[in-house]
Amino acid sequence: MSEPLPLVALLALGPLLLVEGLLARHELMAYTIGRRTSAATLPPEVPYARGADPGRPPDAYVVYLDGIGKRRFTDTRDGGQLVKAVIAGAPELRVLGQVQPYSPLANPLVGRPVWDWLRRHAGITLFLHNVMQTLVAADRRYRPLYNQAVGRQIADQLRLAGYEPSSGTPVVLLCYSGGAQVATGAVEELFDQLRAPLVLITLGGFHNGANDLTHARHLYRLTSANDWIERVGVWLFAPRWRLWRRSGWNRALAAGKVTVHALDPATHVGPQSYISPTARLADGRSYLDRTTATVIEIIRRNCTGKARGAGQAADRG
Description:
alpha/beta
C-alpha cells in the first residue's frame, strides 16, 4: 500500500528544506566576515532606474521589493506588470526594481550554474531558497546583519540611480509579500546612510513585525480578507500579536504610523491576486488597475512638495 501523498511530499521536501536552511545562512555569513562583498554595478542592459528623466529631481524614488519569485535583476511577471503600471501612471517618479531582497550579496539566482540547473530540473528549489532567506531575515540571530546588508544594497542602488543623500527627496519602499520583511528591516540602515524621508507600502506583506520603524514616516498596509498568506504571517510571528506591545510593529501602530487599505476580494497570488490584469471589479477596473491607482495616490499624497515640506518641518520639530 502506498504512503499517503502528504507524507511522501514531506519526505521529499524534508532534505531540501534542511539544505536550504544551511545555504540561506551561508551567503549572509560570507558577507558578514568580508569574504565576499555585494555587487553594486548592474549589467549594461539593466537601467539603474526607470521613469522620470534623471536630469531633473523626481518627486520620489520608488524601490520595488518583489516577492519570493524574484530571482533575476528584472521583476517577476506580476511584479513587472505593477512596476510598469506605476511608471505609466506616475511619470514623475523614478522606480528601481533591480534590488535582490533575498540576496545579501545582491547576487541574483539566475546566472549561477547550480541554480540554473535546478531551475530546469527542480524549479521549486528557487522558491524554497527565497522562502528560507525570508525566514533568515526574520530570525533574531541574523536579522541585524541581514537588515544592514540589504539596506546597504538599496542605498547603493539609489545613489547610482541619482539619489542625493539629505536632499529631502522621499524614498518609497513598495514591497510585495516577503519583500515586506526586507523593507521594514532596511529602514534604519537607509535612514543612517541617506537621511531620506521613508514611506513604506506593503502589498500582502509577510513580515515578523520585529523591525524598528521609528525612522519611517508611515507604512501603508494594502491587504485583503482573502489573503491567507499574509494572515499566516500575522499568526506566525509573536511581534505581530497585540499583546507584544513593545515590538517595532506595535509601537508603529500605537504611534499612528500604520494605515490599512482593504483591497477585497483580492487574493495573495493567482488569477484573483492584487496585481491580476484580468480579474475585474464591479466598476470594470482590473485588480491591477485598482492596486496601481492606490499606490500612486499614496505616493502623491506623501511626496508632493507641500507634503514633503510638512514632513521636513515635523522632523526638525
